[in-house]
Every structure is written in C-alpha cells, then in structure tokens.
Amino acid sequence: MHTIRLIVKNLRRNPIRSGLTALGIMILVPVVTLIWSILSFLDAATEEKASNLKAIVSERWTLPSQMPYSYATSLSEGASREPDDLRPEDSMTWSFFGGSLDPKTRTFDNSLFAFALQPQKLLTMMDELDSLPADQKERFGKVVDKLASNRQGLILGEDRLAAIDRRVGDRITLYGLNYKDINLEFEIVGTFPVGRYDNSAAMNVEYLLAALDAYPTSHSGKKHPLADKCLNLVWLRVPDRSAYETIGRQIAESPLYTSPSVKVETASSGVSTFLQAYRDLIWGMRWLLAPAILVTLAMVISNAIRISVRERRTEMAVMKVLGYRPNQILLLVLGEALLLGAVSGAISSIATYVLVNNAMGGVKFPIAFFGVFFIPNDALWWGLAIGLATSFLGSIVPAWSTRSVRVVDVFSKVG
Amino acid sequence: MHSNRFLLMTLAVLAVAVLAAWLSRIPIKYVMRNLLVRWRTTLLTSLAFTLVVALLTVMLAFVNGMYALTESSGQPDNVIVLSEGSTDESFSNLGFSDVGDIERQTGVARNGETPLCSKETYVVINQPIADPPPGRPRRRFLQLRGVDDPAVSAKVHAVTLYDGGAWFSDAGVQRVDGDNTSASAIEVVVGEGIARELGRDRSEQQLASAKNVERLDVGDLVAMDTRRLVIVGVAQSAGSTFDSEVWAKRSVIGPLFGKETYTSLVLKADDAEAAGRLAEFFNTQYTKASLQAYTEPEYFRSLGETNRQFLVGIIFVAIVMAIGGIFGVMNTMFAAISQRVRDIGVLRLLGFSQWRILIAFLAESLMIAVLGGAIGCALGYLANGWTATSIVSSGPGGGKFVVLRLVVDLGIVGAGMFLSVMMGLLGGFLPSCYAVLVRPLDALR
Predict the structure, then answer these.
(1) pLDDT confidence of residue A176
(2) A367 has which bridge partners?
(3) Which residues of B touch A16 (CB under 8 A)?
C-alpha cells in the first residue's frame, strides 16, 4: 500500500509529464483498438465454424454469379430428392438489383445495390439481423412486414438514405444498372438497424421477377438478357459440418445444375476468397501498422520514464541511503509506468468502445462487402493490456538503470 | 501525390526557421550541443518521428501506387464504350448487332481498312487452386478479357509482349504435350503482375524445374478445374490494370463462362481531343443504341473511389499517430527546458530576448523532427517498387483486382517531412512558450 501511495505521489509530482504521457497513450490506444477490431472481425468472418454454418451456393465459374431462377426452389431444399435426403434448416435467395436515380450519370451517391430476396428471410438468414436484440427485432420486423405487403417497397440503410437525400415514405425510381432497361419505382418503407447494413438496400424479389416477366411485352417478345441469370446466390443454414458436407454432395451430384454448374462453399470460405484482393492491405494493418503504433507508444513512455529517472537520480541515491534496495527502486519506477499505462489504456479503450459503438454507429471502412466495423466487447480489456505491455517494454530499460545508481557518484556531483 | 506542395511547404517552414534563427542570432552551437549531450533522449524522440513518418510513407506509397495504376492505365486517345448507365465492365452488356455500327462511326481511327476497335468481353472467374502451397488461397478471382482480334486490341491498348511470346491463334486453343485431358488448352496472354501471382501457386518441385522462378512464362500451364490455360505470351503491362488480367480469344472464353455478349468496345481516335469528341457523340447524339462512353483516362479515374477511401483512412491514422508523437516531443522539450532553466536565465542576462529563447527551443524541436523525419522518409523509401494486391472500383459493386507497385515520389517524401516538421513545431511550441516565461533572476536563484 505504501509503495502504491508512493507511485501515485511520484506521478502527481510532475503532472505535465504524466498528463502528456497519458494523453499519448489515450490517443494511440484507440487506433490499435480500431485496427484490431477490424482484423478480429475479418478473422471471425473467415474462420471455419463447426456448427450453425451458413453455406453459399453460387455459379461455379464467374463473378458476379448468375444462375437461372429455376434453380432457386430446389437449391433452397439443398437439392434433396429423396425423403431421406438432408434439407437445410433455412435458406435465402439473393438477386442483386443495381440502380441509379439518374439514368444518364451514375455516381456513388445516386446509385445503390439492393438485395432482392424473400422479405421474411431478412429476419432469419441475414448475418447480424438474425440475432438482433428483442426490441430491435420487433421494430425491424414491422419494417419487414411492410416490405412483404408492398411489393414495391425498399428498405435502405441510414447512410444510403442520407446519400440519396431521401426519407422514409418517399418514392424513387431506380434506373437499372445491371438490369438494362429495367427501371423500377420504389417506396422507401423503412431502414435497417444502424450498423452493418448502413449502406445496403433490400427489395422484394417478387417485384424484380415480375419486371423480368413483363419485359417481353414491351420488347417485341424478347426476354431480358438476364431473365435466366437473375439468381445470384443461395444461402443455406446447416446445423454442422457433416450436414454441410452431405448437402454439398447432394447439390454437386444433382443433374439439375449443369448449365451453368454451381459450387457450394461455406460463407467463411467465400469471404476469404473476396478478401484475397485485400490480402496485402490486411497484412500491412496486422504486421506493420499495429506493431508500429505499439512501438511508438512504447517509445513515448520510455522517453518519459527515462527523463523522469534522469531527473531523480539524487532522490534515488537518497532512497538507497535510507535503505531502499535496488529492486524496490526498480519496482517503484516500473510501477509508475505500469499504473500510468494501465489506467490510460483502460480509460482509452472504454471511451473508444462507447464513442465508436454508441455515438458514431461504428467505423466506416469499406473492405469487400463489409462497410462498418464495431468495437467488440473483448476490446474493453485490450487498452489495459496494451497500456501494461507498452509501459513495461518502454520502462524496463530506464527502470533497470536505476539499480545502478551509485550513491557516491550522485552525491559527489551535488554541491 | 503528384503535387510537391508538401515538399514546398516543408522547405518554406524550414526556410522561415533558418531565417528566424539567423535574424535572432540564437546560439545554434548551444542548441546542437544540447541535442548531442542528451543523445539518448534525442534519438528516442527522433525514433518516434521516424516510425510515424516511415509508416505514413509506406501507406501513402500504396495509395500512390493505386492512383498511378488507375491514371496510367488509359490511353488518352481511346474511348471505352459500355452499355448505358454502366461505369464498370462487369455490368455492361452490349448487343452484338450494335457493335458493327459503332465501330464504323466517323472519328474511329483505322489501320488500313480495319477500324481500330477492340471488341472485348470481360469476365471475372472464380478459379479453384488445387493443392495450394501453405498459406496460399484455395480460390482466387481471375480476370479474363476475351478479345476478338488480339493484334487490333494490342494496338488499341498499346500492349506489347515480352520476347518469346506470341498472341493467341485464331482458334484460341491448342493441344499441349503431355496433357491427357480431352479438352484442348486455352491459349492466353497474361499480364506480368498476374503471372507473378499465379507463379506463387507452384510447388517447390515445380519451381525447381521452372523456366522462370519469378513468374509464369510462355509454355506454362494454369489449371482451371477440368480445363487448362496455356500461356503463349506475357504482356509488358506493368503499371496498368491489364497487368492483372488474362487475355484470351473471346469466342472461346465467352461461351465457356456464360458471357455471350460483348461487355465493352475500346475505340482509338486520332488524338485525345478527337477521343473526347467521340465519347461526347456516343453519349449525346448516337441513337441506335443506349451507350455510355468515356475517354479511357476518364474511365480509369472513375475507378479511384477505393483510392479515396484508403487515403481518408491513412490520413486519419497518420494524424492520430502524429498527435501521439507530439505528446512525446512535448515531454522531451519540457524536460529539456526544466533541466536548463539556469541556462535560460544566463542567456536572458546575456541579452537574449524572449523571442530568441523561443526560437532557440523551437529550433531544437525542429532539428529532432527533421532528423527523425528524414530517417523515416529514407526507411519508407525502401518500399518503393514493392508489389501489393488491391482492388480499384468506382463504388459499390464491380471493381478490378489489381497487382500494383508502391510508388514513393517527391510528393510523398514532402508529405512525410511536412508531417514531421509540423509535429516538431506543435510539439515544441508549448514548451518553448514555457521557456520564454522563465524569469532570469528566479532561474539563477
């Protein structure tokens, strides 16, 4: 207790230095926390799960995957043909409709890509939306009901809504980007819960299919070029790895999917392939950026402690005269650094968590199809750990040097 | 980072600092000696600058490489024609019947009787990789560009091949010795970047007998599930998006991968001005088909949205790191001042005014910053020429997977030095003001 009191007293003796060092830690810890949050999310997204898996069925070769909608029903059943065949627990089909508010000029702000799907699947199959807290789920459920009852409905993310400068209840016309000559009129029926889908949009797939069916009547009986390619992905929920393998085999062996042929992969494997393009960026964040910030942090602390030790050599000599052992003095200096690092780091990570998750609605950093990242609960102890680790690394050398303070040397210079 | 304004701003700040030092006749030797006496602290503080600046340099070099790639990919006298509303080839579908008429329009340059029109189908393939070496992916996206006439396309895009290579044949396929599969191998020309990337999939055994260990070369085969791609040429395409592409005969790969239509036409005009007029014509006056035409530089510039997003992220990280560094400098300078209170008192009694003292300490802080920044820039410069994978796109959906080279230019060095100097100035300012407030007699008492 006495030592802790002494440590606190020492830190308070030079408030400017302690304050500046604490501020340095508090500024740098959030950056590392943000980087690690992004990396841990991507790691989790690409980690193969053992249970409650999601599988993606897509066209075997090309990107974007384009399959005939006739595949939808049987793929949603996991290509099961016999009563004994395994069926997925749940499924969802995705078609992508890209449109621009301006038929002539497409910009980032005036265009959007919507998932065309069965509305109720938004609540049961979409990542994160399938695990909303009860109150949010109830609220979003009402929006989904509107989409189900209004075929022309459109759900938008908050950011996308702001980007196109519209409000819930407004009607908009989207001029097809990927579906040439298919222009759809929508009514914005609600928004996604704030977070991952801030830049997304969802529409009722029946509306797209109806537009494709109606296309020949206005185009001399010719089908739309994408009429037989409008199914982009099928998502399947399976209980475990073994069920995934079985359903994957059922689909691969089915004679229904030959032109085009399809492939089945776990969601994590699909995400990994997409993230390949960002491989070096992610490597740089993991092995260059975060370590460099940690080293900078350690150096800021080291500098402060080194200065502090140099200024207090006389005091340390006095302490030795008073009977303090070298290791006690070392612990005292180390303790100052550790306390400063731990407290500043912990405050910083808690503040980052609250600020990013509650005030900012996540960090917007688009990588592949992930647009927003949140600080995980685990990050609450990262700041403490970062503060402790960098303080220890930064202060161990100057603290160690206090052991060699020789009373005679110091007092020979005094006076 | 084409602009060198940061370098100019840095030089301007330093010039002002030198001028102020000279005018105030501050004892530079005294400042230098202090830095040398406390060399450990000086070095440690400089190292913080070094790290921040080196990191900034590497990160900016990455974005610079992306900008360089998107800006150097287009020929100024080329016009790229897509279906209306498309800003990306992936979503463009041009009708077969429209193509003949488009290439015959006035303004399209000709090679004899042949219009210089590259008719292309661009597809992105999900390539499974059998037995990848440890740490390598099991799938990758491969960008295939099918062209009708490789000679015309090469002329339009000004792409040439390395010695020993040739463009694919009219058939676009060939039998390969020792290939027991029933289908012929598809002849392809690969960009140098993707040749290097694909080359990394080879096992040690394959590398031992490889013609070229750095990248795939003419004659090498690439597995594509049941089909094989045989490389007949490697394109000298460094610095353009074509560096990451595989070119093949359109009539072979289009039907094979379910893309029966053309995605884009690239038309050569007589010069950049004529290209602008031609693009304008297709966008506003051409009525036989709904088209979206861009001059190539304009099109590739539009793929810079990702670059902008990365740049914003980098600036944010750099600023936060710099603020952290500033606190470190402040600590050093406050300590330097508190140690030399008596010196300050003596200097004041010798006749040095307050603002001279301020400049002396600011100069000290700036010297640390310049030293650390210069080392940081030098370290960051080592990244010049590194290759990295990334993606360039114009927004949601689409985009191109690219292999790029990191580019450290004067603009980036200037930005690094500017950040360093600003850190030094801001970090040194408060402590220097504190030094100014020291009263000579109190200091000596």
Answers:
(1) 86
(2) A370
(3) 334
Inter-chain CB proximity A292 and B93 less than 8 Å: no
Q: Which of A101-110, A312-321, A323-332, B112-121 has the lowest mean pLDDT?
A: A101-110
pLDDT single digits (tens) B386-440: 888 887 776 555 567 788 889 999 989 999 999 999 999 999 899 988 888 888 7
CB contact under 8 A, B397 and A30: no
State the average pLDDT over residues A159-185. Answer: 89
Burial class (CB in 10 A: 0-12, 13-18, 19+), A262: buried
Residue B263's nearest CA partner among B170, B146, B167 is: B146
Question: For residue A398, which amino acid is it?
Answer: P
Residue B86 lies in a domain: no
Structure-model confidence comparison of residues B142 and B259, the more confident one: B142
Query: Residue B258 — left, alpha, or beta (φ > 0 → left; ψ -120 to 50 → alpha)?
Result: left
Q: And the tokens for B431?
A: 């402590």
* Last residue within a domain, chosen from B222, B243, B268: B268
Residue B3 confidence (pLDDT): 55
> Is the same domain home to B331 and B256?
no
| Half-sphere exposure in the Cβ direction for B9 (13 Å, CA) | 16
User: Rounded to a whole number, what is the distance in Å from the CA of B389 to chain A's nearest CA?
Assistant: 6
**A57 DSSP β-pair partners:** A234, A264
A399 and A305 Cβ atoms separated by less than 8 Å: yes
Q: Which of A338, A306, A307, A344 is nearest to A23 (CA)?
A: A344
Q: How far is CA B159 from the centre of its chain?
A: 20
Out of A229, A260, A291, a domain closes at A260
Q: What is the pLDDT of residues B47-62, one digit of tens each?
A: 888 988 998 899 889 8
Looking at the complex, report in whole angstroms how far the Cα of residue B266 sits from the nearest Cα belonging to chain A. Answer: 20
pLDDT of residue B87: 67
Q: Does A175 touch chain B (CB under 8 A)?
A: yes
CA distance A320 to chain B (A): 23
Task: Give yes or no for B83 touching A (CB within 8 A).
Answer: yes
Residues of A in contact with B123 (CB under 8 A): 62-63
Q: Position A47: which residue type?
A: E
Q: Residue B63: which of B415, B419, B422, B417 has the closest Cα?
A: B415
ipTM summary value: 0.78
Q: Give tens-digit pLDDT for B294-347.
A: 998 888 887 777 777 777 888 888 888 888 888 888 888 888 888 788 888 888
Domain enclosing residue B325, as ranges? 5-72+305-444
Same domain? For B114 and B237 the reply is: yes
Residue A136 and residue A176 in one domain: yes
Q: What are phi and psi of A403, to 5 degrees?
A: -65, -30
Q: How far does A104 lie from chain B, in Å, by closest CA?
A: 6
A11 within domain boundaries: yes
User: In terms of CA atoms, which chain B residue is nearest residue A181?
Assistant: B84
Instruction: Count how many domains chain A has.
Output: 2
For residues A19 and A153, state if they share a domain. Answer: no
Residues of chain A with C-beta less than 8 angstroms from the C-beta of B388 = 280-281, 284
Residue type, B357: I
Q: Which two tokens stand for residue A8?
A: 């606190």
Residue after which a domain boundary falls, among B268, B297, B316: B268
Strand partners, B267: B79, B117
CA A2 to chain centre: 45
The pLDDT of residue B2 is above 70 = no
Answer for the pair B249, B146: CB distance below 8 angstroms, yes or no. Answer: yes
CB of B90 within 8 Å of any CB in chain A?
A: yes
A115-119, A191-195, A346-350, A385-389: lowest mean pLDDT where? A191-195
Domain that holds residue A110: 62-260
Q: Does B164 touch chain A (CB under 8 A)?
A: no
Report chain B residues whose CB lies below 8 A from the CB of A269.
Answer: 138-139
Q: Beta strand A183-191 with A171-176: parallel, antiparallel or unpaired?
A: antiparallel
Q: Kindly state the percentage of chain B with pLDDT values over 90.
A: 26
